[in-house]
Amino acid sequence: MKNLLSIIISGLLLFLTLGVNTAFAQCGPGPHWIDNCSAGVDIMQSHAVVKLNFDPTSCAIPNNSFTLNGPVRVLREASQDIAVSGCCSATVDGHKDVIPTEIDSMYLTDGVYTLVAGHTADPMLQRSLGDIVEDPSDSTLACSCFEVLG
Fold first, then answer.
1. Do the beta carbons of residue 104 and residue 72 sit within 8 Å?
2. Measured by CB atoms within 10 angstroms of the end CB, which terminus of the chain is less buried, N or C?
3. Contact criterion met (CB below 8 Å) for 40 and 73
């Protein structure tokens, strides 16, 4: 699953495409796999393709990029039938379409640049909350969105 994230850090606009392994052993596969997903912790190796825009007045995605790699620990709540919106959306419909999540710790680096997120990674950081939401057109798929504050 990939997420496109836009982050503003000290006047820099940072674009990330974050790739994570989201194969939850206790959740799915199959139709409406999110319905029966229990709370838990997922630890995986991840990567982020990073693009920096040094012009804070422009929201254009730049051509420059580099890749960061490292471990991510995600806290997962039990599935819920709640309404959410963002890069993916869900409405209350009788199915537990949403798994609320939080990046507990993320430490991605290429040896030169480092991206750290999550309260456990640094208690001074804000919480990085998100959701995994069932695709309304195909209940075997889902999208994942995080607000990464690093």
1. no
2. N
3. no
Instruction: State the pTM of this model.
Output: 0.72
Is the CB of residue 142 less than 8 Å from the CB of residue 1? yes
pLDDT in tens, 87-141: 678 888 887 889 998 888 888 888 888 888 888 877 787 888 888 888 888 888 8
- Please give the structure tokens belonging to residue 33: 């796999």
DSSP string, 110-130: -SS-EEEESTTT-TTSPPEEE
SS3 10: coil
Residue boundaries of the structural domains of the chain: 2-146
Dist. CA 89–CA 24, nearest whole Å: 21
Question: What band does 14 get if pLDDT is binned at 50, 70 and 90?
Answer: very low
For residues 96 and 81, the answer to whether their CB atoms sit within 8 Å is yes
